[in-house]
Structure prediction request, 42 residues.
Amino acid sequence: MKSILKPEIINNTRGKIGWILLWLIGVPVPILLILFLIRGCT
Prediction:
């Protein structure tokens, strides 16, 4: 049975993957937190 993903879920997942990739390439956590707060929790 196929599961149908809503576009919001897909975009949310892409956003999380982007933050994880930034962390993996070595961007310090405090900078990521500042960017997250500036960008907002959308």
Summary: Residues 8 and 39 are 17 Å apart (CA to CA). The chain has a mean pLDDT of 77. The radius of gyration is 13 Å. Helices lie at 7-24, 29-39.
